[in-house]
User: Fold this.
Amino acid sequence: MNNLLQRNTLLFAAFAVVLIATAALFNACSKRESTEQIIKSDEVQLSEADLKFQNELVSFRDKVNYTRENPDFKSGETLDADDAILQMESLFNATYGFRDEHYGKTQTDRATVLIDVNNNDEVLLDDVVEALDEIINTVTQFYYQCEFADKGFLLLDLRRGNITENQLEIGVRSVIGEKSTGWNPFGPDDYWWYGNLKGDCDWIIGYGETDAAEKIQYAINSSRFIVGPPPGYVYSYLGYEQIDVFGHEYVDDNGETLIFYIESPTGTFTHDEQCMEPDEMNFHYFGEKEVIYNRVPLEYNKPPNWTFMECNIVGKEEYSLSEPTLPCIHHQNHLTYAKQFLAAINIIGPPIEL
Assistant:
């Protein structure tokens, strides 16, 4: 029995040595293999799409950093123009974006950046880095000029523009948010004019600064649905997309428009129609959420990782979109979404303040 116990002890010790050696071997593996080990040890399984996104982001980031650190080196590498725009957007947002904060007010700024493009619709990597640095400088100026007391950078949206004399326009849309510490549903004193920044229904409180559309926008952005990533990971975003909703498109079971929308054949609207009372404010707040989180993703047949980012709601008086001769008042919605991917922080790094 003692011999058997002795043999088992030796076998266990040998097995422990093998385990230690195996662990050391894993620690000596490449960064990618190390990342895969971390994923397994934390019991987090990145999808194939997540891994593809992470690898492409890191590859592009490393090329950008090498080009910056070696300004005299000209690789001559070219990228497809559309891919370059998408990669710049993705890297910027992963580096500087804090989507997982609650924001009430938002500020949108726009600019245009030019980049040389050849006849094959390709751009030089060196020019891409230069354009990215210009975008960073431009957005940083927007950020520091923003007067929000407690602000965070929400998203950068880059759009392809026209080509003129072999120069491609890149449209830059920057969205900065004011962080909100709390949110309350609309109460008994919330009587707000539907739009035009006319404040409350007496045009006294908040005149020139806010209106019902702004108030609902603030509530939607402040209560945005957020699920935190697992420890050691971060969500990053790709392919920003803006969906415009006029207001008449979606109705509930009673035929009421979920978004504020009223038509008038005469072009005249009463005070009561233009003044949104508390019950109406709450109805359209929940109607907006139904449209944002359920109706729009379903209508556009979007994947599960297509995520709402922020909204901009503007109260307008103009002609109906469905009947161009019919006057209406409505809340024009500009809804921003993006595809969400999970990535390891030790691979792509955490976001940093501008």
